[in-house]
């Protein structure tokens, strides 16, 4: 919502319901007058300092330490069956850890996604390290939309310690639950983190796109023709390829391959002083997995036909058939 | 205990050591985790995501109001644009020296600024046999293409077939309008609208025919996982596209023994 919209909305409210507006304004003024307690002020100051210095506030550090040491109850997200893994594979839940980053897009929404997620992942790792974890499982990725050109990138997951292993300096971050995590470990695959590849670019065709050129050459006929617009195709293809290249490079930093579960691309046409321009962007987000390609999976597989689940789901809604 | 159950590489990684500097195992893919494991089970390794784009201006064709007819200009456009996107994706797979591409998705999107411009995208994961075994390439020694998932790919190989090529057929059809007299005559009667039935039949038949012909040209034995999509890409209400797509497959030499060795078990899950 732009400033102008806010003013307009305010004016609208005044004319619609004067009494309610007065109460509303009074409430807001009242809120300003109540000073936050000294404790709350100190807490806020500590948060600010910690975020600037890329560390955790002392009270968070203390709670995480106490939780990891068993002085406070452990916390676990995900399916309850995951508790079985404690016995079978020595995976102990420590506590919930999180990280977020509310980010304003100054020049690029696309680059913002890359920076925002990475900042949030770093903060999640910080909490996991404070607990002496080996991995963070069941990580949930979430975004919240701001009112303008801003967005919050949030992560939440369960930090776990694996029996007999020393704490990791760089805990693995996995979006799967511990049941799946164990299944992957047994196949020699470790989900280690989240990789992002993003790219955007502008294209300003000087003499117009190939379609415009065709339209100029044959003013009335060209719109009846089937034709590819090759310059736009290759522009878009290059943006996608560079985004995927960035994804691979991001994976390389983790020494891992990437399984991209989310891909998003968009193309806009913009009219400016120079004429017609195009903006294209592509974002890919994936789970980074580390494994040894030369080592074949060991487990036996048994093909089964389930009498319970659907084979190939033919489950149309009633309204589609009636 | 942990170290006995879990692979040594995994243990190393969980201790916090990275396999940095090694170029092995660094790839991109849009497979799910389960699909990834199944592709590896099938003795293949993912190499990278491959994409192809095509932005296409559709010509204009008018269907005559009261006639069932194929809109051949649009049919050709839909087919040619998909083919271009697919071939660009294939080119990338050739550069990666892949044996083939699995999990191919073909997407069509209309551009906001012009209703005659459609965007076609083909995207899939290029894979290669782990030990470089020959005999998996598709038509003419090019990488095969397939829209099968990782699980389906494993199952296909287990059953003694190999994928050859993703085959498709497209037909854009104009369904005739009913004349006023005709619709007046139907008031109060339960009756089949033969003209409409016939239009659907014919359009579907044409799409299937074309897909089958493509598979025959690729010298395939059959087509599996066929899906029939119906769509109207912002065309007039009586214009509809039938699009048939599937993976053409060919039996391997030892197909019979492989199939005989397969003994799928029936299971009845009791947890839901």
Question: What is the residue-averaged pLDDT of chain B?
Answer: 86
DSSP helical segment count of chain A: 10
Largest sheet of chain B: 4 strands, mixed
Mean pLDDT of chain A: 84
Oligomer: heterodimer
Helix content of chain A: 40-55%
Which residues of chain B form runs of ≥5 with pLDDT under 50?
A: none
The most extensive contact between chains is: A-B, 81 and 79 residues
Label the structural class of chain B: alpha+beta
How far do the termini of chain A sit from each other? 43 Å
Q: Hey, roughly how much beta strand do the residues of chain B contain?
A: 25-35%
Sheet with most strands: strand arrangement of chain A: 1-3-2-4
By DSSP, the count of extended strands of chain A is 9
Q: How would you describe what is shown here?
A:
The complex is a heterodimer of chains A (about 325) and B (about 270). Chain A is an alpha+beta fold. Chain A contains 10 helices and 9 strands. In chain A, strands 1-3-2-4 form a 4-stranded mixed sheet. In chain A, strands 5-8-7 form a 3-stranded antiparallel sheet. In chain A, strand 7 and strand 8 form a beta hairpin. In chain A, helix 1 packs across helix 2. The mean pLDDT of chain A is about 85. In chain B, strand 4 and strand 5 form a beta hairpin. The model of chain B has no long low-confidence stretch (mean pLDDT about 85). Chain B is α+β, with helices and mostly antiparallel strands and about 270 residues long. Chain B is elongated, with a radius of gyration of 24 Å. In chain B, helix 3 runs parallel beside helix 5. In chain B, strands 2-5-4-6 form a 4-stranded mixed sheet. Chain B has a 4-stranded antiparallel sheet with strand order 3-7-9-8. Classes of the chains: A alpha+beta (about 325), B alpha+beta (about 270). Chains A and B meet through helix 7, strand 5, strand 6, helix 9 and strand 7 of A and helix 1, helix 2, strand 1, helix 3 and strand 2 of B.
